[in-house]
Amino acid sequence: RYLTAPGGLRTRGGASIREHAIAAATVDAAKQIGAPAIVVITKSGFSARLVSSYRPSMPVFAVTTEQTTFRQLAAVWGVHPVLAEDVEVTYEDLSDFGRRAVLEAGVGEKGASVAITAGFPFHQTGSTNNMRLDRL
To answer: pTM higher than 0.90, yes or no?
Structure first.
């Protein structure tokens, strides 16, 4: 079901069409490059839930600095929550932390490609608008 948001942007299931497009593109890109995992940098967990809703064949590592979000994501299909304590809240530091978590979990090998999604302005709820392909 679609709803109309301010500015005429349609939404589906509480997420904007733009957010769905980023989530779907992240899952599709991860499949195409043979990524062993997807890394989602999230404050509220919304982006990780949205990516998970596309049922990717690889695990979703959700990096968050929020204890409550970390606990909530433990119950989400295909999501491996990662609590980033004592980590600088920057894209580079959190994405590095997420990539290390994938390696430490034994899911991927060093040098493997991975899809990372986050939002800018950084760590602001509801701002997921970026997808990047990187290496572990």
So the answer is: no
